[in-house]
Amino acid sequence: MIDRAMKVLGAVLLSLLAPVASAAGRPALKGDSPKECESCAGWNAPHEPFRIFGNTYYVGLAGLSAVLVASDKGLILLDGGLPQSAPLIDANIRRLGFRTEDVRLIVNSHAHFDHAGGIAALQRASGAIVAASASGARALESGEPPSDDPQSGFGKKANRFPSVKRVKVVADGQTLVVGNLAVTAHLTPGHTPGSTTWTWRSCEGARCLEIVYADSLNPVSAPGFRFTGDAAHFSITEIFRRSISTVGRLPCDILLAVHPGFAGMEEKLKIRREQPASEPFVDPTACRTYAADAAKRLDQRIADEAKKEKPPVPPR
């Protein structure tokens, strides 16, 4: 019942936002066929866009992040939500006074339908280059996660999303530049084989802060998948631990996450509203805390898997 109500609310708010794009001299962006899932309606509930710091803005939804960063030569967008998120992200970009047509680069955290589903429509609307890790690029172009993704076992129907054309592959530590803005890719596999955390610097006058858009570090999988390895897959626990350590060591003044709740966005917004002079988003310890919590979850997952019969390890 709640899920249905959220869908109705989303449709009503989307209809209210659509004239914003039309008033700017173009029809509202048309998204691809909506994705159905238990959490989709709540994730896709509209959220007011806002400036986070300097040239960094939140243009995502209530449960799915999308971040816009402005340069002097165009915009960079991080993630695209669900297929049905694209029109809402487009409207949020315009409500902040920007144009989706000025997005020059779209980068992806990981190629699951809730973070990559809207990228195809946003690429069509902007003509932007799309960039991801090697594994992520293959998944974006095929429109589904690879067989070694912990969630691939949910099946094609559950995992499919609109495929993306001509994805640029980025390496670990590679920096992409748009005008006077540079974003750096940090490969953090574990949640998916192609998971990527992105960093950049935003400034307000002479004050510059390091922003981290951290990918999920949660060991979530389809039934039967073992992070510690099985007959079909080697253990990825050490790779996952290195990814968690990478995020914890990053220069990090502001933490943003692929699901805004992972970084406490609503709590921080509440503090900002109640204490206008405060800076709740600025927290140099946030990435270390995020990583420490992730390490505990991975330890628990490993312990849970150890309680079950250990399957044979595939030969090398």
Q: How would you describe what is shown here?
A:
By secondary structure, the protein is α/β, with parallel strands linked by helices. It has one domain (2-27, 38-306): Metallo-beta-lactamase, Chain A (4-Layer Sandwich), CATH 3.60.15.10. Helix content is 33%, strand content 19%. It is built from ten helices and twelve strands. The chain has a seven-stranded mixed β-sheet. A hairpin with a 2-residue loop joins strand 8 (175-178) and strand 9. Helix 1 crosses helix 3 (86-95) and helix 8 packs antiparallel against helix 10.
Question: Nutshell version of this structure?
Answer:
This protein is 33% helix and 19% strand.
Distance between the termini: 50 Å
CATH architecture: 4-Layer Sandwich
Structural class: alpha/beta
Outline the biggest β-sheet. 7 strands, mixed
Based on Cα principal axes, name the global outline.
Answer: globular
CATH class: Alpha Beta
Order of helices and strands: HHEEEEHEHHEHHEEEEEHEHH
Strand order of the largest sheet: 1-2-3-4-5-6-7
Q: In what range is the share of β-strand residues?
A: 15-25%
